[in-house]
Amino acid sequence: KNMFLVGDATAAGWNTDNGNQAVFRDAANPNKFYFVGKFGTSMFKLIETLGNNTWQPQWGLKAGLVANSDGGDPEPFTTSSAGYYTFSMDISTKAYSLASYTGTMTDYSTIGMIGDFNGWVDLALEQSTYDSHQWSLKDITISTTGKFKFRADGAWTVNWGADTELSGKGVQDGGNIPLTAGTYDIYFNDIDGRYQFIKK
């Protein structure tokens, strides 16, 4: 599954087709999802499919546990104040956590993808206007199967690598990330190094 944020505590508002932020899937367990980033005050849910008024299936809470829209819409997750939060959920165990983020954050001017697909020349990602630590590209065609990394400000001083394709958590000076040729929507979070590729 893919998961995207929706709600008045998110960049998209209550709109299912408004640049909704992806929530990052665990590379080893497809039932776990993570997001560290900016939320406003109020509510949010998660949807699996983007599109005009595509509300089902949606994910929220029932009786304090993670639930989907089978048998009626779930209640939203809530944030009491605006700020940066750490959110995670497991749709198999129905557990979740939502807490204020207390770690460090660094502001970068650019984040690029660099690898076999482009001759190891940076492809700049687009920075979110809502949360400066979220980066994305939509409908990007990767013509060469190979490996790549993310890096900041066009230099190797800060770079993220990992060994899992499509989703994972990059770390400083980690390995080159495998990527199969295809057309993707790409999401990257410079706070925790998580990435998500959604094949079109």
In short:
With 200 residues, the protein is mainly β.
Order of helices and strands: EEEEEEEEEEEEEEEEEEEE
> Regarding quaternary structure, how should these chains be classified?
single chain
Distance between the termini: 14 Å
- Characterize the largest beta sheet: strand count, sense, and whether it forms a barrel: 9 strands, antiparallel
Number of strands: 20
Structural class: mainly beta
**Total helical elements:** 0
What helical percentage do the residues reach?
A: under 10%
Evaluate the radius of gyration. Answer: 17 Å
The average pLDDT is 97
What spatial form do the alpha-carbon principal axes imply? globular
Percent of residues in β-strands: over 45%
Low-confidence parts, pLDDT < 50 over ≥5 residues?
Answer: none
Give the tags.
200 residues; mainly beta; nine-stranded antiparallel beta sheet; six-stranded antiparallel beta sheet; 20 strands; globular
How would you describe this structure to a colleague?
The structure is a single chain. Helices cover 0% and strands 49% of the residues. It is mostly beta strands and 200 residues long. Strands 1, 2, 3, 4, 5, 6, 7, 8 and 9 form a nine-stranded antiparallel sheet that branches. Strands 10, 11, 14, 15, 17 and 18 form a six-stranded antiparallel sheet that branches. Strand 8 (83-90) and strand 9 form a beta hairpin. It is globular, with a radius of gyration of 17 Å. The two termini are 14 Å apart. The mean pLDDT is 97.
Question: Any chance you could write out the topology, listing elements then pairs?
Answer:
Layout: E1 3-6, E2 22-25, E3 32-39, E4 42-47, E5 58-62, E6 65-68, E7 77-79, E8 83-90, E9 95-100, E10 111-115, E11 123-124, E12 126-127, E13 134-142, E14 146-152, E15 159-161, E16 167-169, E17 171-172, E18 177-179, E19 182-189, E20 194-199
